[in-house]
Structure formats: structure tokens, C-alpha cells
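Subgroup meeting minutes
Present: P.N., E.W., G.H.
Scribe: E.W.

1. P.N. recapped why we're keeping a running log of single-chain structure predictions: easier to compare across weeks, and new members can see raw inputs and outputs side by side.
2. G.H. added today's entry (275 aa).
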Amino acid sequence: MVITQLIALGVGGYVAARLAGIPRPIASVLHGAAVWSVATIFLAWAAVTGGGMIFGATSSIMSGTVNAAANVGEAVVPDDLSMPNIGEIAGSISLDALPQDVQDRLAEAGITEANIREEATIAFRNVFSQQEQQAAMSEARDTLNDILRSPGDAGADIAAFFDRLVEGPNAIISDEDRQEAMAVMERRLGVTPEDAQQIVQSVEDGALTALDEAEAAVEAVQTQTVEAAQAASDALSAAALLLSLASILGLAAAAGGAFAGKPNSLIGDRLDDHV
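Output recorded in log:
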């Protein structure tokens, strides 16, 4: 398309200068520039009104590049990424994760690992509800969108997000949840407050490990998303640069054709000489 445009502008400049009949280089070049300006305005109008599709491949490439850049702006958390499920973590607690003295006291009381898992699951079942998980996932997406807008703050944004899941009113395990779970463990297992605290701490440690894994997954998504956004931006910039260069070459072609088409004398003078 660029080659065709250069040829067309060159021919257009030649014809415009020839028909003007002015034997002056500057006048001929200006006629060629006028041809280029009219063609450029028409191309811009066609692109804005949708008629740019008549220009085929260039229009498709530009629209595809723009769409790709826009789509990257929608940060997508992978389907396999999820926030820790405290009920499942509590249900998989291991006696080996507890201090040895706690294990000994539990064994003396006849409390098995199965008993602890069952009661811990009950104690933590509704600590971090499905609605809270969905809210956390929504916040993760918002965090990735913030990263796209300011990639330089990516590390701080991710760290702040996961800090909110560890501490504060919307934490996965709040102080209130912790106290309630300890009370349940004391009441149902008949253990001391210290042993109940150790069991709850073991569940909390498992949740923190799961959070670390989720944070690593979000950081991986962040890296891929920023790289994709940068690649789309670079592609768009390259396409815009190439079109700008093509436009400049078109001006040169039109001016060159006009210079070549400059008549040697005024058309009226040649007609008088012929008469």
C-alpha cells in the first residue's frame, strides 16, 4: 500500500505541476505538496469515519494493534489462582507441626490427629467465607490494574494487598476469628488455652504459607501482564512511526513528481508562440 501511495502521489504531483503551467521550481513543489496534503486529509477522514477499511492490510494491522493494547489493560487473574481456604487448611493440620510438649499432652489426653482436624475444621469453617474470597479476588484484579497504570509501584502494590489479607478487619484470620477458634478448641477438645493457641497458630502458619504461594502467583501474573502491555505499546509506537515515515516519503514523492513535471515555460506563452 505504501509503494502504491508513493507512486500515486508522485504521479499526482507531476500532473498538478504540469497542468499549473508555471515554470518555477518552488511553485511546482508547492503544487505537489498540495496534492500530498489533500491525500493526507482524505486518508485521515476515511480512517475516522470507518472508510479506512478500504485501505486493507494497514487498517487491519493498526486496529489489531490498538485492540491488543486495550485488551492487555484488563488484568486477568488466572483461573487456578485462589485465596487460602482456611477450612481446608485446618482440616489438614498435622500433629508434627505442633511443639513436642503439646503433642505429648494431647497424646496423654487421648486426642488424635483426626480429632484435632475435625474440631479445627469446625472452628475455622466460616472464618473466611466464599464472599470474602470473591472480594479478595476482586481486590487482586484491582491491584493488577493499578500495576498496569504504574508498573514502578508493582512490588509495593502487591505487598500492600497481601498485608491487608494478613492484618486488619478484612484479614483472612482476624483477631476476633482467632479468639473464637481458640475458644472452640478449648471447649470441644478440653485442652488448655496455651495448647489451643498452639493449634490455632499451626492453622494460621498454614494459611500464611498458602498466602505466600498466592502472592508468588500474582507476582508472576504481574510480570507477564506488564510485559504484554509494554510489547503492545511498543508495537503501536512502531506502527505509528512507520506510518509517519510513509507520510514523509509521500510528501517527498509528491514534491519530486511535481518538480519533474515543471514545464519549461508558461502554457500561455507556448500557445502564443504556436499561433
